[in-house]
């Protein structure tokens, strides 16, 4: 009973600490993002006016600057922006006048579906490759896997995407381009986005497993006659997962970044294609909202991965309890 | 030197890199045609005698363009990697050696920088600067220095623990001298391995930006940008996707093998 209560208190403390960490990092992120915008060449008011008419009259420019609030000093603007950004109010798009929040929430589900599905497939693929590689160490399957993963990591994601699109959508017609969107349509994007990450983490997982295979407790488990499947599943894979969870969490950033490229290739209507448009027409509120939102997703995933790691690993869990 | 080239990975990687650098350096002299020369009568032709890799949508020689693009891509990546390695090492060593408040402040900054998905940060920075060569290099460099600095800080901390470094600092060696004479030579091998991996991801990032339309602007060829152009005429001229893609793949493979080999060599030495 007492132990149970203690674990729960520890759990709450871990969650609370994670929330504080996320908030602190996001504060830094907001400062840097805002500074980037501030330091960027070109005046937003000028750009906004020029998108309506060819030459901007000085009075109109001054009026607009006052309306946008950019005649005030940078720190004052930052605090106004921050106050709104806390409740996801990133202002309105320069181009369409729609609230940035609505645009982001409309497009985000598509990106989320792509990245989360890729993430899941990547985790399973790297587990499979790692286990196969470690158990067949230095035999043919392992060598083939190693060569394959060294090669696939060097293939640029956009090239892989184009080739897959050409072969499977245009030539073989397995995933036709102009059909209704569904899960089947995610297969090529997921393979494109996940191939490199899967082989990177497959190799890492293999290395971690080989390390564990040489530990004494594995020998003990074998000597006492535990079935091989049990030893692998219970003693090796479970323990090897712990360092992997943090790494997988960090890989999410790569997937979010890569989604911009993959969405462009497969015309997937997610946030990435939106951000690209916004960048080319300098739609500052959309760009800002996009960057901050992506950073928030990434930091949250990372912190969650850390939390899972703590919850699963008694060494870290009790370490945290004793220190706290 | 012989130990280096006995390692097959290292030798293969070095060979590939040398070839690529040779193509990039000699491009203006070995290109069969002018890469900017438009020939509207011969658009999207298949590989033939006159144009060994065919022509693109504007009738420009693909082989010449790939050679020139390799020059552009490698040049940009070299500059961006140099900036990342220099800035990252300097900041990492500073953080590791100063310790205390400086160290904490720098690590806070690094943590915040790591909160951005790096390609997105690079994309936005180069977009804000404006689609250009300068923008791409700046974007990739600003997005890339932080993880590097963190790794270098870790190496510096480990190097500081060595007895002879402690001895040197007891004898009064401080600051830049301690860093240059005792810390830097110690972490140099790991730094070199790290840098060759860095070049690899910088090449992918720069060409990724090029593919998205940031980076080299038309008519200047760049490997990522060429693939984007090939995308538009994929149905009528699929062969246009091959050359820039293969070139990128080989380049990245070269740096990757080089790095792997390098790492093996220094692990054996330890």
Explain this structure to me?
The complex is a heterodimer of chains A (324) and B (270). By secondary structure, chain A is mainly alpha-helical. Chain A has a domain at 100-323: Orthogonal Bundle (MetI-like fold). Chain A is 79% helix and 0% strand. Chain A has helices at residues 2-39, 44-50, 58-68, 74-85, 100-135, 140-153, 157-171, 187-213, 216-223, 228-265, 271-280, 284-312, 314-323. Chain A is flat and about 85 Å long. The model of chain A has no long low-confidence stretch (mean pLDDT 83). Chain B is mainly α and 270 residues long. Chain B has one domain (2-266): MetI-like fold (Orthogonal Bundle), CATH 1.10.3720.10. In chain B, α3 runs parallel beside α6 and α3 packs parallel to α10. The model of chain B has no long low-confidence stretch (mean pLDDT 87). Chains A and B meet through α1, α6, α7, α10 and α11 of A and α4, α5, α8, α9 and α10 of B.
Task: Sum this structure up briefly.
Chain A is an all-alpha fold and 324 residues long.
Work out the number of β strands of chain B: 0
Largest sheet of chain A: none
Total helical elements of chain B: 10
Percent of residues in beta strands of chain A: under 5%
Q: Which CATH first-tier class of the domain at 100-323 in chain A would you pick?
A: Mainly Alpha
The second-level CATH architecture of the domain at 100-323 in chain A is Orthogonal Bundle
Span of the ends, CA to CA of chain B: 17 Å
- Low-confidence segments of chain B, given as residue ranges, are none
**Overall residue-averaged pLDDT value of chain A:** 83
Shape of chain B: elongated
The CATH homologous superfamily of chain B corresponds to: MetI-like
Poorly predicted residue ranges of chain A: none
Helix content of chain B: over 70%
* Strand residues, percent of chain B: under 5%
Distance between the termini of chain A: 20 Å
Provide the residue-averaged pLDDT of chain B.
Answer: 87
Radius of gyration of chain B: 22 Å
Structurally, the number of domains of chain B stands at: 1
Structural class of chain B: mainly alpha
